[in-house]
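A.,

Following up on our hallway conversation. Structure tokens first:
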């Protein structure tokens, strides 16, 4: 027996050997279709990467990222109490969403004066935490309020670690309008920057925000391209007014949406730091760490089975932190349902505490360094984002591109691709399109009415500029609309819209497809009426008559379909089935089944939203029975 280390007894592993083994498993199936995935931007993600030499990567300053908690309750005293609870519970940053800001989602702190701001931040020691102001179109007003607050409290504005979040470009993208044209707004931005500098402000006044583009369906490259173009626009505005470029860049912060795709989110955050360093070098500046905020993505949140949002936001927060975010704000898991209560806020806060204090994810400054997959995707996203940025620049900059709708059209094309992926469940939404629970119980949110947004924009007055506003859409909304319709029907009829499962053969024969069908119909709020299976067509039809359902779906194996599916479809049609479905896609039987009455084949990859829209309408019609 050889006395050698175990590893030396095996041949060296390499890609060629791995591909040989993969070919044996695929048995002729296409490698590209089965194992290679792509981002919404079309960037390739391989199933296996070799290790890579770490690339010099700009990173955040050493230390953990900040745990940021939202302030969005309309009542100032309540908002203050929530903020103090969050800070006492482990948060070290606050995000104050003003009423009317898009991110407030119809709520937001109703701050109208410096007295209001002081009351909202009573007991909050601003020199010890980071405050990010999210005021939307009231950005300039918020900046003056923060300056006035420091004066009111007798504190040095230079000691405040504040991000004022002034972002007229983001307002234009999200709302479709501004109070003035850019040639009027740019000097105002430079003016507020100079005023703040004179007062000793050393934080970041302006924000290049990726959320409007992400919520509209943009892919990683499109979001980064827009963010980069926004930051360059602010840099140019400050430079044109005589601000030093080195100081000007230090007044700009960045914000990206973080979703549950760990691989892509880590790479996207790393790519932004790399891209901004390239801009700094082009300006003749030595790159230095930027301020990069993260907020978990609104786009991925669901109303149905909201507890899954805890998993989504947890993964997103971890990915943003590992990607180099300086602060991370986790949307509470009930955010899509209303104003979160104390428990939902606590879960969001504690998820980050676990990541930092128990999982130690911030101990390594760039954990993705040298990982072949992350390095490759970071480079791909950076290259694609730079091309997206250049496209915006050739159109005259981001304000010009938005004004004529060019950026919107590119994002729309990506959104359509993503919408199709959601409809076909290639992009699965757990609890909404996959594994829905028709018996789920409602969760608690605060009983607080939404507030009316303030009129107008303080970026005016002037000659208003307008464009097509980017939509803010959650991916689950089409499925949620179906579930809402089902709930309304249940409230009046006392039962769910239903589909009868015509299960053929034994449980072992029909169970896989019956389970698939039941989950698919449940995504549209349609209850599947199952059974132990039927030996023949007539017994299935008889059970259908007794079920009270308008729809029927045949479920079994291809072998049993060949023997009994046609006659079962004919029997169900005679029994009054309004629509007959078949779980699966038996190509050789397609025409005979259609002639027998099968209207739709329910299978993986079908346009489920189209199927469910038709099914729900049909299921809510009274059944037509024949003897």
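Then the amino acids I'd put at each of the 627 positions:
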């Amino acid at each position: 027996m050889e006395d050698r280390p175990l590893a030396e007894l095996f041949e060296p592993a390499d890609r060629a050997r791995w591909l040989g083994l993969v070919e044996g498993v695929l048995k002729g199936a296409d490698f590209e279709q089965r194992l290679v995935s792509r981002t919404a931007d079309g960037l390739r993600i391989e199933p296996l990467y070799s290790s890579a030499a770490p690339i010099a990567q700009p990173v955040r300053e050493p230390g953990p990222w900040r745990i940021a908690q939202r302030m969005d309750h309309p009542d100032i005293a309540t908002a203050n109490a929530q903020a103090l609870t969050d800070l006492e519970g482990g948060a070290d940053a606050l995000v104050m969403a003003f009423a009317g800001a898009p991110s407030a989602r119809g709520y937001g702190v109703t701050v109208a004066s410096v007295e209001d701001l002081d009351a909202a931040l009573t007991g909050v020691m601003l020199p010890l935490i980071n405050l990010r102001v999210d005021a939307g179109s009231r950005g300039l007003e918020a900046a003056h309020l923060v300056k006035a607050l420091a004066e009111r409290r007798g504190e040095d504005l230079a000691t405040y670690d504040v991000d004022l979040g002034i972002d007229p470009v983001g307002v234009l993208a999200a709302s479709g309008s501004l109070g003035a044209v850019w040639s009027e707004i740019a000097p105002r931005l430079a003016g507020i920057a100079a005023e703040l500098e004179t007062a000793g402000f050393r934080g970041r006044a302006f924000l290049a925000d990726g959320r409007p583009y992400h919520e509209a369906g943009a892919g990683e490259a499109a979001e980064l391209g827009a963010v980069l173009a926004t930051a360059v626009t602010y840099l140019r505005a400050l430079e044109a007014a005589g601000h030093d470029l080195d100081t000007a860049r230090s007044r700009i912060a960045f914000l990206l949406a973080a979703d549950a795709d760990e691989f892509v989110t880590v790479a996207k955050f790393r790519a932004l730091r790399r891209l901004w360093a390239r801009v700094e070098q082009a300006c003749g500046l030595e790159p230095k760490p930027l301020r990069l905020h993260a907020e978990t993505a609104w786009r991925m949140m669901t109303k149905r089975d909201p507890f899954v949002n805890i998993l989504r936001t947890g993964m997103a927060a971890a990915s943003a932190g590992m990607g180099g975010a300086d602060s991370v704000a986790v949307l509470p898991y009930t955010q899509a349902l209303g104003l979160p209560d104390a428990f939902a806020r606590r879960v969001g806060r504690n998820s980050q505490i676990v990541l930092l204090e128990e999982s130690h994810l911030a101990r390594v400054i760039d954990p993705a360094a040298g990982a072949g997959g992350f390095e490759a995707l970071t480079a791909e996203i950076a290259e694609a984002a730079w091309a997206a940025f250049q496209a915006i620049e050739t159109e005259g900059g981001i304000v010009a591109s938005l004004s004529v709708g060019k950026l919107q059209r590119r994002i729309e094309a990506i959104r359509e691709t993503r919408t199709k992926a959601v409809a076909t469940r290639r992009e699965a939404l757990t609890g909404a399109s996959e594994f829905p629970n028709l018996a789920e119980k409602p969760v608690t949110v605060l009983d607080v009415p939404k507030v009316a947004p303030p009129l107008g924009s303080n970026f005016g007055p002037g000659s208003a500029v307008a464009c097509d506003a980017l939509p803010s859409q959650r991916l689950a909304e089409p499925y949620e609309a179906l579930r809402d319709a089902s709930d309304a029907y249940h409230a009046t009829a006392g039962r769910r819209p239903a589909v009868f499962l015509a299960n053929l053969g034994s449980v072992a024969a029909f169970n896989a497809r019956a389970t698939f069908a039941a989950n698919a119909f449940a995504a549209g709020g349609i209850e599947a009426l199952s059974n132990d299976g039927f030996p023949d067509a007539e017994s299935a039809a008889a059970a259908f008559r007794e079920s009270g359902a308008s729809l029927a779906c045949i479920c079994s194996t291809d072998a049993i379909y060949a023997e009994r599916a046609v006659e079962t479809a004919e029997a169900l049609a005679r029994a009054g089935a309004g629509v007959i479905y078949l779980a699966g896609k038996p190509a050789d039987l397609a025409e005979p089944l259609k002639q027998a009455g099968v209207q739709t084949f329910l299978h993986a990859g079908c346009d489920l939203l189209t199927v469910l829209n038709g099914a729900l309408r049909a299921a809510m019609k009274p059944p037509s029975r024949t003897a």
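Residues 479-619 form a domain with the Rossmann fold fold (CATH 3.40.50.280). Curious whether your intuition agrees with the design.

B.
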